[in-house]
Amino acid sequence: MACSSGNAKMSTSNANTPVLPPPQGNVDQTMKPVLFEIFGEMWNVQVRLGQGVSASVYRVSSGRASMAAVKEFQVDAQGGDYGYLKERSVLENIQGHKNIVTLYGVFTNHNPLGIATHCLLLELLDVSVSELLVRASNQGHSMWLIQHCARDVLEALCFLHREGYVHADLKPRNILWSPDDECFKLIDFGLSFKEGHQDVKYIQTDGYRAPEAEVQNSLAQAGLEGDSGCTSAVDLWSLGIILLEMFSGIKLKETVKSQEWKDNPAAIVDHIFSSNSVVYPAIPVYHLRDLIKSMLHSNPSSRSTAEAALISPFFSIPFAPHIEDLVLLPTPVLRLLNVIDDSHLYNDDEYEDIIEDMREECQKYGSVISLLIPKENPGKGQVFVEYANAGDSKEAQRQLTGRTFDGKFVVATFYPLSAYKRGYLYQTVQ
């Protein structure tokens, strides 16, 4: 990539810049299997994304370069397949919502040892809220990101609860970002159940477990039956904790175990917000605080519903993303900063040469759909590159971040495709 003068080249030297996020998750490079035969086509296993007691999740690709996730269920000691049947049944009944992971299909895998395992072929998602919390470095996330996540999860819960289901394991690890749909989605419905027909004794994860679920789990452990099953209110409790962690930037597992929390959770929420209030504008902070408190009533009947939470004043306030947000959340659009001088924008010949050079360089990493370099603000001198998919955009960000152009270090962030398509080039908060 070069300017029209031919003396400014993109350098491959790396800068010590913080703009490139680390690889996702702790992956196991020695995983098995190496291939899945899915609907008559061979898919390569690229990496294991996660492993639990009952299942492993892999990122896979086909010969057509399609990408997906496979959740392979382990054969239990009794040879049963309850976990697989449970999650398959729930997913098949709740398909079609933009904030719930898409199930492409189901298949049986026969490994070289002759063991058959049941598998789900799922939409491949990206970074989880759990990873975002780790990267927040105890500073908390921006209002834009918190609002985006809260709205997406509440939309999913509205749909889920209307269909009569309780997720029952809402936690940061089960909320993932979709780069192509630009939204957060819920995954992992292995503990989900129809409200009024709870067929799972132990629900929710420690740190995100509602008080009534704690009681029921304790009774189940003692071999006793509770009066009734848990309701959709347990999901709202979990979301309240998640949003409080996103705001504070700290894990609250020990806090929610404390006696002070059990006596008066609202007081602790107030304390957390008063400690962070200088960092955020006052009015949105109050609205977010009240929204979270509405989800954390100890009495489930007093807790907000997902539908009621969505009409909180917090969602009526528009926010701009921080530059860190656009580094953390991949999209098909890449934005290059610190590349073009104003002097290059007003000479038509130079400008066209820059466009051509930029397109040539960016096409090395994937199929470029469009490229824009605004001559005026907003976005003046920034390079916006729309790729065919977020995978290509991520590869370009990885390759271009830290390179030098005309003596300046390139900063590469992502940019919302929806805003780019509308021609909305907002100024991000630094």
UniProtKB/TrEMBL annotation:
Binding annotation for ATP: K71
Pfam families, sorted: Pkinase, RRM_1
Known EC number: 2.7.11.1
Localization per record: Nucleus
Keywords, in A-Z order: ATP-binding, Kinase, Nucleotide-binding, Nucleus, RNA-binding, Serine/threonine-protein kinase, Transferase
Function field: Upon serum stimulation, phosphorylates CDKN1B/p27Kip1, thus controlling CDKN1B subcellular location and cell cycle progression in G1 phase. May be involved in trafficking and/or processing of RNA.
Cross-referenced InterPro entries: Kinase-like_dom_sf, Nucleotide-bd_a/b_plait_sf, Prot_kinase_dom, Protein_kinase_ATP_BS, RBD_domain_sf, RRM_dom, UHMK1, UHMK1_RRM
Domain RRM intervals: 332-410
Lineage: Eukaryota, Metazoa, Chordata, Craniata, Vertebrata
The protein, known as: Serine/threonine-protein kinase Kist
Entry-linked PROSITE patterns: PROTEIN_KINASE_ATP, PROTEIN_KINASE_DOM, RRM
Reaction catalyzed: L-seryl-[protein] + ATP = O-phospho-L-seryl-[protein] + ADP + H(+); L-threonyl-[protein] + ATP = O-phospho-L-threonyl-[protein] + ADP + H(+)
ATP-binding listed as a keyword: yes
Bias (Polar residues): 1-17
Residue span, Protein kinase domain: 43-315
